[in-house]
Amino acid sequence: MSTDDPAVHAGEPSGEGVGEADGVDRLWTPHRMAYIKGENKPSGSGPTDGCPFCRVPGLADEDGLVVARGKAAFVVLNRYPYNSGHLLVCPYRHVADYTELDEAEVAEVASLTQDAITALRTASGAQGFNVGMNLGSVAGAGIAAHLHQHVVPRWGGDTNFMPVVGRTKVLPELLRQTRAALAGNWPAR
């Protein structure tokens, strides 16, 4: 099949409006525009101000991308991941600061973080992890009003020119596929 065959390019943007041909391939990531424009961002700091971490537990796991649920906290895929399999461990209670968690919440966030690491190693062969919290918007928290811990899987060579120069992250599968793989490999307790 020739690369000029329209069937080869089915579902790809037409290329119209991209300017003069310059020999540069373009990777279209239209899903990122939702994040850039602030989609799903709360309108305020309260739990009823559109907080996605308060809304997600009320959805079916597949619809909310919930991977695991505990009594005090849950694990959800990041809709705008740094890497494929990027998880967020969130308390159900709407609190902004780590010091506001009670003992049961602290223990379950820690336990679910351990389970997340185990599931990511099993499901995707992750070789390392970035684990942490951004407390407050000045510290980089995109949703500062509801505490969440990031668990980002890493592999040797996963950082390349795309995120550094192109400010684009290439993800190898759809979020629902990643959620299913991780939920299927979640450790039993």
Automatic annotation (TrEMBL):
SUPFAM superfamilies: HIT-like (SSF54197). Residues 1-23 are annotated as: Disordered. Residues 52-161 form the HIT domain. Keywords: Nucleotide-binding. InterPro entries: AP-4-A_phosphorylase, FHIT, HIT-like, HIT-like_sf. It holds the Pfam family HIT. A motif (Histidine triad motif) lies at residues 146-150. This is HIT family protein. It comes from Marinactinospora rubrisoli.
